[in-house]
Amino acid sequence: MSAEATNPATPGPITPGAHRRRGRPRIDLRRIGWAALLGPAAGNRLPDAIGHVVEAHRAHHPEAPLEPLRRAYVLAESSHRGQMRKSGEPYITHPLAVTLILAELGAETTTLTASLLHDTVEDTEVTLDQVRTEFGEEVAYLVDGVTKLEKVDYGAAAEPETFRKMLVATGNDVRVMSIKLADRLHNMRTLGVMRPEKQARIAKVTRDVLIPLAERLGVQALKTELEDLVFAILHPDEYTETRELIAANDARGTDPLAEIAEDARVVLKDAGIAAEVLIRPRHFVSVHRARRKRGTLRGADFGRLLVLVGEDADCYGVLGELHTCFTPVVSEFKDFIAVPKFNLYQSLHTAVSRGDGEVAEVLIRTHQMHKVAEAGVVALGNPYAPPADEQTDSTGERADPTRPGWLSRLLDWQEAAPDADTFWSTLREDLAQDREITVFRPDGGTLGLPAGASCVDAAYAQYGEDAHACIGARVNGRLATLSTVLSDGDTVQLLMGQDPASEPSRDWLDHARTPAARIAIRRWLTTHPATPQPEPEPEGRRAPESAPRAPQGAPAGRPAEANAVVDQPGASVRLAGCCTPVPPDAVTAFAVRGGVVTVHRAECHGVARMKSTGRAEVGVRWGDTTQCRVSLIAESFSRPHLLADLTEAIALESVAVISATVEPPTQGRVRHTYTLQLPDATTLPGLMRAMRNIAGVYDVSRAQHPAQTTS
Ligand code: MN
User: Fold this and answer.
1) Ligand 1 center to residue 140 CA distance, Å?
2) What range(s) does the TGS domain occupy (predicted)?
């Protein structure tokens, strides 16, 4: 089934994709097996068998205590002694291999201790109480979770109940799932000894349950290997074909990717950017997908370039250099730094083409982003320990990069869902949604949503339950109904009513795909039993007119003192996302919920609307601002080097690019959106002029500038 079977001379279990991971020596697990046979060493010396585990663990955690690992190994080895794997190897090789997988990914000591013991309670005389007494509550909790998962697994593969049981464990402690994933990976690696029907059954469970979870937990390294193992079992013909394709490419004398990598190293060195340029071979499934998508594959299609840098800002520096010195394929550009994927993933994605037509995909990220991209939650330690300095941004999403948004949201939904069934059914829908789109907010922020998401989903993703007050949206500058389904790259401006008594509409449920939206709406509906409603109002202008309302104006109990930028001591000031005011714009402001004052440009649509509903303005003037952030849209005719020229013009004005997005060109036109940090607001007109002066650029405007609206 795998390379293992085709190459009996290879020592130890080898995965189909293993040889693709050049540059990272794989540890010979069979050697561990033999060392394990020798049993624990006398006294407190570390047994040889866990030498590899310890080495891998210390590489990530130099200060980690080793004593728990030693004791866990001794207990596991003695209790599993005499048991054999189907392959004929001593059973202890399995927990050792699982633990090694986790150690290499950077798991912390508690997880590794539990991993060594993960099969003891299920398969040996060891009791959970014994584990608790000897290793503490936390390790016992993890072992118990894995033991329970073990039993779940053998039910029908993708039944809701299976998910529910698995997620009960995951939802409570994601480390349990980490151990389960590593356990499954080792079992998949060694599946060749099973009957074909059993291989297929286990592979399907892996495909339907474990791989989606690995994806959502951000454990890319495990996910790709599991994908290849499943591919080999469930699609043997395509697998063989792909393997031959890769072998044929490897046998070619020249490697265009290596050549482009070398060129890139020179470019970056000349630019003075410290960066590592690596070649990442695609895994089998990825090669297969690329082939299905593109037909014939060229040499550079068999892998990607991975550029690793030290600082976030260097990522954009690398991007600028590569786009300047190669021809960028603008449609391939994605900024997952400004908008991390739901599973924490951060990188810049682009592609550059060479004169001979070879196109190299490039991933640009920092070393820290790389670690998170590979290991996801496995490297995070205890997700329930309060983060060192928890930051919450204006959207309520935890800004702490070590807490996956998905996990945070999962825990939030669990709290918010009216009942367990609602939680599980919405979560299952979420798991079934395998594609994400990214939409942009006028303030330059972004939202990751499942494909098919509507403005309703965007509203709840951005505002949480405050989205009940959403009254409409602009999509790419045009008024749109809240039911509008969003496409990747759309810019969505949500129009929020200022009335605290605003309510969501029952029919929003028909347009909500995300659990966050569905749960929030359902919860509101269950706590507000239906009353006879007049004809449904057209979406886009729902809230302000309907039903009796609380008095308009500043929220009760928080009188907005007219006259900081606002002349109001102690007020928290926010620049409105809809119109991104910048000095010296004429501005006005309104008090919003929570004692916050939002500053708008005087000509903003929102201002007129709020005035018309009788809201009191708060006096504001610009203080001594030095730095400011602004979103600019550059509309251009598509041409090579355009992005490079624009980013260069921006750099020449000493302006930093916070994020950038390039929409795929349509009819020869392309739209770039940049969120920029200006050293000084007065440089904005000069910057916009400089951008407009670039060949092919026919307009540069502020994001959501009223003048930009063409509807
Ligand atoms: Mn196991």
Assistant:
1) 16
2) 435-496
Angle of CA points 425, 430, 433, to nearest 5°: 130
HSE value, Cβ hemisphere, 13 Å, CA-based, for 447: 32
DSSP letter assigned to residue 207: I
CA nearest to 307, candidates 357, 338, 352, 252: 352
Close Cβ partners of 274 (under 8 Å, ≥ 6 residues apart): 309, 310, 314
CA-atom Rg of the chain in angstroms: 28
Question: Ligand 1 centroid vs 114 CA: distance in angstroms?
Answer: 11
Token duo for residue 253: 């004398």
In 3D, which of 9, 177, 191, 11 has the Cα closest to residue 85? 191
Q: How far is CA 598 from the centre of its chain?
A: 30
Q: Where are the beta strands (DSSP E) in 282-409?
A: 303-309, 327-328, 334-335, 348-353, 359-366
d(CA 364, CA 277): 9
| Residue positions annotated with a catalytic role | 122-123
Give the phi and the psi of residue 586 in degrees, each rounded to 5.
-70, 130
Q: For 32-49, what is each residue's pLDDT tens digit? A: 444 444 444 444 566 778
Report CA(90)–ligand 1 centroid distance (Å). 13
Distance 148 CA to ligand 1 centre (A): 12
CA gap 24, 22 in Å, rounded: 6
Read off the tokens for 85: 């794997």
Q: If you ran DSSP here, which 8-state letter would residue 660 be given?
A: E
**Residue-wise pLDDT tens digits, 107-157:** 999 999 999 999 999 889 999 999 999 999 999 988 988 887 776 654 444
Do residues 170 and 86 touch, judged by C-beta distance below 8 A?
Answer: no
- The pTM score is 0.57
State mean pLDDT over 624-631: 66
- The full set of domains in the chain, from first to last, is 19-234 (1.10.3210.10), 254-378 (3.30.460.10), 440-527 (3.10.20.30), 562-625 (no CATH), 628-702 (3.30.70.260)
